[in-house]
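Duplicate of #3305? Posting structure anyway:
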């Protein structure tokens, strides 16, 4: 189920996931809960945020939980109408459940799957993600000037963080991955003191957050245009896999088909065992959202999903290559949101 309106119809719902609460209110807070009770929206926060919440959340009743008392509580309203409250069990701990049952003995709790309420993006969200991707492209262009033999991964990590801080972005979307030489064989490498050599390959995986929405992009390129035949081979194969998936990504396509296509392409050259992670994932408020793009997902691509496609080939002890694009799913095609150079040898 992708439509929030259809999902909440005639139900009382407690939204607990912080990303969902941010999505529903457009208000950032470390303590925010959203309720939909008898057709009315409520946002609950505490003294620290209440004034800001009241001025920013226009479409809901804003309630200060610092003056919450069991007597003076809006939840018993549920009992007046319908004594059922729906919660996504993935966002509700056993302890919270026990506490809730102690307080509200008559309220019945049922599970509702809220995992897809943010999967289809609206125009405003699409524009924010496009902007995040644009900022990412321009940071990449500046970053590659610093990539030279003799510099360490850690130094480059500082460079990318500094470029992000100096950009229009509000934050990083996740801690950047910088992996050179044989470290590039680890998909999620943490930057080390390793010093780049002139015949190394380097992988940079990073993204930025712009007004709560993220980008996620990976490039693998030669430190000094001096790499081996096999590195050239895996780079062009990964790029071929990426383009094949993007070409086939459009409304109505089964998600697992994209993953299959790429793995079959890698199999032709004997590298299918060297692609050891999912092909991609949705992005939005969170860096990893639904849908997950992998071989077990038989869901269908829908218009205005935004997903990453990030095939990779990793050869332990030698090197690895991953290239990642963020794409917007449309009726007859996918639109690539990142424009940064994907070549192995960058002119710089
Ligand atoms: Mn990614």
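Output from current build:
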């Amino acid at each position: 189920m992708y439509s929030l309106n259809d999902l909440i119809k005639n139900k009382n719902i407690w939204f607990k996931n912080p990303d969902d609460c941010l999505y529903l209110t457009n208000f950032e807070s470390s303590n925010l809960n959203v309720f939909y009770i008898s057709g009315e929206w409520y946002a609950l926060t505490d003294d620290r945020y209440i004034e800001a919440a009241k001025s920013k959340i226009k479409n809901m009743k804003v309630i200060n939980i610092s003056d919450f008392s069991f007597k003076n509580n809006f939840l018993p309203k549920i009992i007046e109408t319908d004594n059922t409250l729906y919660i996504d069990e993935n966002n509700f701990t056993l302890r919270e459940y026990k506490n809730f049952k102690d307080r509200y003995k008559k309220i019945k709790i049922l599970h509702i799957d809220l995992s897809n309420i943010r999967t289809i993006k609206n125009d405003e969200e699409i524009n924010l993600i496009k902007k995040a991707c644009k900022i990412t492209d321009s940071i990449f262009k500046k970053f590659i000037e610093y990539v030279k033999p003799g510099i360490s991964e850690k130094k480059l990590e500082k460079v990318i963080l500094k470029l992000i801080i100096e950009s229009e972005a509000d934050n990083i979307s996740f801690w950047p991955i910088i992996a050179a030489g044989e470290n590039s064989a680890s998909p999620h490498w943490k930057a080390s003191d390793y010093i780049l050599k002139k015949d190394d390959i380097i992988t940079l995986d990073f993204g930025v957050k712009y007004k709560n929405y993220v980008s996620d992009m990976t490039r693998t390129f030669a430190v000094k245009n001096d790499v081996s035949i096999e590195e050239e081979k895996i780079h062009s194969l990964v790029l071929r896999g990426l383009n094949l998936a993007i070409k086939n990504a459009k409304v109505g396509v089964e998600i697992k088909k994209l993953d299959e296509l790429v793995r079959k392409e890698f199999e032709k050259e004997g590298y299918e065992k060297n692609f050891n992670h999912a092909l991609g994932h949705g992005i939005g408020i969170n860096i990893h959202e639904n849908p997950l793009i992998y071989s077990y997902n038989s869901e269908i691509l829908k218009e205005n999903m935004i997903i990453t496609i990030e095939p990779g080939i990793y050869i332990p002890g030698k090197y690895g290559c991953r290239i990642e694009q963020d794409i917007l799913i449309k009726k007859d095609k996918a639109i690539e949101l990142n424009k940064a150079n994907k070549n192995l040898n960058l002119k710089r």
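Confirmed duplicate; merging threads. The first helix runs from residue 4 to 8. The chain has two domains: 4-111, 123-336.
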